[in-house]
What we know:
Elements: H1 2-16, E1 19-22, E2 25-28, H2 40-57, H3 65-84
Antiparallel strand pairs: 1-2
Amino acid sequence: MIIDRQHFSAVRTLEGLGFRYRDGEWLAADAVSPAPMPSTTESDAMYATLIRRADALAGCGEGSYEEAELMAIVDVLEAYEAKRWPEGKEPGRAG
Length: 95
């Protein structure tokens, strides 16, 4: 299934960034010296894929597998945004 392949690819990319999934959330492996970011193009493409998947899951049933997946994706997106835009997104700029 396409979503499964995208999910596995996203997980591999996040692990490559130094994140580890533990107890239902993605954690930075080393908060003192975080893993380097991949190229902006590659990481932004992953981000866009996860945004599309989150949009597809919007409105899913409470307590469903889809809701659990959505919450995991939201955690990943928030972690990525904090690392990609540490000062916050700038109005009028891409990203």
